Amino acid sequence: MENAINDLKSLFNEAKANNEFEFVMTLLNYKSIGSAEVQANLHEWFAAMNMYIDLYNNYSGKERTRMAALLYSTFFENSDFYNIIGNLCRAILGMRATSYLFWKTKKYERLLGIGEKQDFLIEILADTEKNHIIEFFQTNHYPSIRNSFFHSSYSLYENEYILHDAEININGVIRQSFNISHFFYPLVDNIIAFFNAFQTTYLEHFNSYQEDKPIYNTPLGAEGIIIGTANGLSGMRFFKTVNLFGEWHDSGFWVDERFGIFGGHNLNFNFASIEQIEIDEQFIYYENKGDIRLTDAAFFNLIDKVADRAAASELLRAVNLLIKIAGVKETAMNVETNPHKKKSFPKMILPFYNRALELLTGRGDTKLLTAKIKELEAIQVESQ
């Protein structure tokens, strides 16, 4: 756990050092006008988790186990937690922060699930070399535990947590129960340690802004200040950015101390849809990226969205991306000297070329793509 916590602390520090504007935007977690405790769910998550941890430490027996399951499940459910970690990664990589990171999937008809958010997060954590945080998620998150508890599909008997209508894979062994003292409580202790580190580090940075601080080179192209108060970070003000009736005025958003709520001041509204902004940002991320190393879940989610929208310019970008990433993997296959590893490449490459062919069919020349797919399929057959 020490390595994961060190990665977490360095994630905050590196994001601030690389782009303090986006770092502050991430800390503010601004979504709309209103109280910070209402317009986002981070602070309620902090309060609830601390309450559950206290109860977990004070109870024993089955009551302790129920509280363990509650805090374990609640920890993994919070959306702001994933958004903040993802946005810190984006700040390190030179990207913009967004309150709608890891938001919806495909046709935007449903919110992303926890497993999907983690899949999307893992790739960007790999890009920032925060591999111990990846390991934390991979070794401590068991969806079947969370689902069984929230769906009341479990029972407790002596020192066993028994799953109903579900199973759990522990070190490659499929089980329908697990030991509470030796397996579950150590997981919960890891969750508590990571949560405490996240909460403490977030609040330390938030509260470090005790006075106003100049900020330069903002996306607005204007100078301004990060607003600090005795209560910590309060907002941002940009100097002389809006002209009203021949006079220049400051703009920004900050907490009105009289009412304790975020307010927007002299803001210009961009009515581009959230979907359009999100898709453009994801395109830029993958266009500037080399290979997809750990998980392509977020990438193919983007492709699905683009296919559903059927906008010609987006489809062209998607096809180019699919071909680019497939080409990177194909180059790696060609230089691979391990014959056993080389055999696995066509299976990784073909989904990209096949999806590109689907999107291009009826819209352009598919001869080269079709030939490439047949070539890889032949290699795949030979290796079987």
Provide a concise account of the structure shown.
With 384 residues, the protein is an alpha+beta fold.
Structural commentary:
The chain folds into 3 domains: 2-206, no CATH class; 213-265, no CATH class; 274-383, no CATH class. 59% of the residues lie in helices and 15% in strands. It contains 16 helices and 12 strands. The strands form 4 sheets. The protein has a 5-stranded antiparallel beta sheet with strand order 8-9-10-11-12, with helices on one face.
**Helix-and-strand structural type:** alpha+beta
Specify the biggest β-sheet: 5 strands, antiparallel
Count of structural domains = 3
**Cα-based radius of gyration, to the nearest Å:** 24 Å
| Portion of residues within helices | 55-70%
Spatial gap, N to C terminus: 41 Å
Strand order of the largest sheet: 8-9-10-11-12
Q: What count of helical segments does DSSP give?
A: 16
The low-confidence runs, each spanning 5 or more residues with pLDDT under 50, are none
Instruction: Look at the structure and give the mean pLDDT.
Output: 87
Please write the string of helix (H) and strand (E) elements: HHHHHHEEHHHEEEEEHEEEEEHHHHHH
So what's the overall shape? flat
Into which percentage range does the β-strand content fall? 15-25%
Tell me the total number of β-strands: 12
